[in-house]
Amino acid sequence: MESIIRVDGLAKHFSVRKHYKGRFAPLKNFFTREASTVKAVDDLNFEINPGELVGYLGPNGAGKSTTLKMLTGLLVPSHGEVRVSGFNPWKERKAYVRHIGAVFGQRTTLWWDLPVVESLELLKYVYHIPEARFRENLSHFIDLLELSPFLGTPVRALSLGQRMRADLCAALLHDPRLLFLDEPTIGLDVVAKERIRDFIKYLNQERKTTVILTTHDLADVQKLCQRIMIIDQGKLLFDGGLERLQERFGGKRQLIVDFAEHYPDVHVAQAQLKDYQNRRAIYEFDRRELSASELIGQVSSQFQIQDLTVREPDIEATIRNIYEKQLLKVPET
Amino acid sequence: MGLYLKLVGVQIRSQMRYRSQFVLDTLALLLVTGLEYASLALVFERFKSIQGWSLAEVAFLYGLVEMAFGLTDMIFGGFDAPRFGRFIRQGSFDQMMLRPIGITLQVLGSDFNLKRFGKMAVGVVIFSYALSHLSITWTVAKLLYFPLVVLGLVLFFGGLFIIGATIIFWTVESTEVMNIFTYGGSFMMSYPMNIYETWLRNLFTFVVPAIFLNYYPALFFLGKPDPFNFPAFAPFLAPLAGLAVFLISLGFWRFGLKHYQSTGS
Questions:
Q1: How many CB atoms lie within 10 A of CB B147?
Q2: Could you tell me the residue ranges of all domains in chain A?
Q3: Cβ–Cβ of A74/B97 closer than 8 Å?
Q4: Does the complex come out with an ipTM higher than 0.90?
Q5: What are A1-30's pLDDT values in tens digits?
Q6: Which of A135, A295, B43, B133 could link B56 by a cystine bridge, Cβ 3.0 to 4.6 Å?
Q7: Looking at residues B127-143, what average pLDDT do you find?
Q8: Does B3 touch chain A (CB under 8 A)?
């Protein structure tokens, strides 16, 4: 399959002015121009195929936004190549942005003082959307995103969740094949987040829109993303599916067993007994060494079991694990 | 062009939503500019003329510049430095770059400020006063040339606005420096250039060609002699000088855009 995004050796280096501290610092800062280079993004390589839904993750300042800005043509890279749907994003800006949709977190593309519906109408002219197609998309998105209650409200008076829904609609009226979402659920309540997630899922599954999203909310990742890319200090540290991520970096699986009666010692050979009280034991085991059914077989052969559950390591713990322990440590250069 | 009108339509509709604010702002502008002119009239009350220019003649210049500046401020408001700086900082400019239409057109259509009608209106009133107190013989040449002078002035001021906005690509914060040229320039140009010190006049002749946009055309319309002995075509340079400044500013703007794309600040 022909990839929709291809990134080769992409890098963005910023030159940052040196800041002095101390007594005459303000004066020194004003007169000197010593700069150091910050590698916001350093040698990224990846491809994304049509129809993928990719979560682009990383701690603050990891280079996520810089990457998105380069992919959308807002920034010119220092090195490397980007092809998106056959375009060079920053050289062919006008032609290129017609084919993509983008919602950048806290910023709105809508006109602040206009009612939502008028902003959306205006986009019809901005993107030269054929009238029939525009009407069809508009009524469709109004239904899906439940925009009707606030279509006549000026954008400045919308709640954050309403504005995000309106912005999503605005980004999609021209049928983009590719959608960039920078923190689409940031600051929203649980219900609003869920609504946005459902909508993104629909876009990807029904409309076959390729979606790339950044987020700090791991529930977004868990519910949406088939593929995860983790970036830190400008370098891509992980690229693969959720399962592989958990396999490699996830904590252990747990088997929680309630015994029918009290046993003084419930240790078994291959799993570690983490906790045992009130007839409930928690075993931890590694999926690479042991399958859940094997363990259950072992335990049930020795003891009477009343009830049991297998608990998977959650994605949140997995990623926290990575960040905190720096499992994917960037090699020093 | 159709899209530009649509964008401007948005601005006008938005501003109409704040009708009382619009009325108050317009009144305030009328008052400020009116007072400015009244204080000038008081000076003339005592001295009758400034270096050979009567009150009515200065009013001609003042009204002309005020009208053109008001018009510029209305059309090129999107390039107004403080506003444009806010645009960059809030990321609205990035949003523009995500739309498949020209950036310049969008900035131009991002602020069409009706408030400036007030400033223009003051200009019109003062200009009418000048016309009623002067006996200008309006030849066909003068009638045809007048709109070209206004056009030259609008292009000239528009160019200064664009240069001011472009500087923000580097500084991010808006700088007061550009106001010296835009607001300061328009203020200076409201008075006859022969009252200024030579160095200052030279600055506004050879660095910023302002003198060809107000002073020389005014000499032509009012039929006054040229104290500086410039060539006879000097009064007719207004549209050219305006266009030159405008084109240079557009070139600088393009350069600034490229810089912005490579640094993101």
A1: 10
A2: 5-247, 252-312
A3: yes
A4: no
A5: 689 999 999 999 887 766 666 666 666 666
A6: B133
A7: 91
A8: yes
Q: Which residue, among A84, A93, A108, would best test binding to B if mutated, counting the most B CBs under 10 Å from its CB?
A: A93
Domain A5-247 has CATH 3.40.50.300: yes
The whole model's pTM is what?
0.81
- Which residue of B97, B254, B265 is the best one to mutate when testing the A interface, meaning the one whose CB has the most A CBs within 10 A? B97
Helix (H, G, I), strand (E, B) or coil at A324: helix
CB pairs under 8 A between A and B: 65
pLDDT of residue A333: 41
For B59-70, what is each residue's pLDDT tens digit?
Answer: 999 999 999 999
The verdict on a CB contact (< 8 Å) between B92 and A107 is: yes
Q: Which of residues 257-296 of A touch B (CB under 8 A)?
A: none
Domain containing residue B107: 2-263
Residues of B in contact with A75 (CB under 8 A): 261-262, 264
Q: Is B94 on the interface with A (CB under 8 A)?
A: yes
3-state DSSP of B196-259 = CCHHHHHHHHHHCHHHHCCHHHHHHHHCCCCCCCCCCCHHHHHHHHHHHHHHHHHHHHHHHHHH
Question: Percentage of chain B surpassing pLDDT 70?
Answer: 98
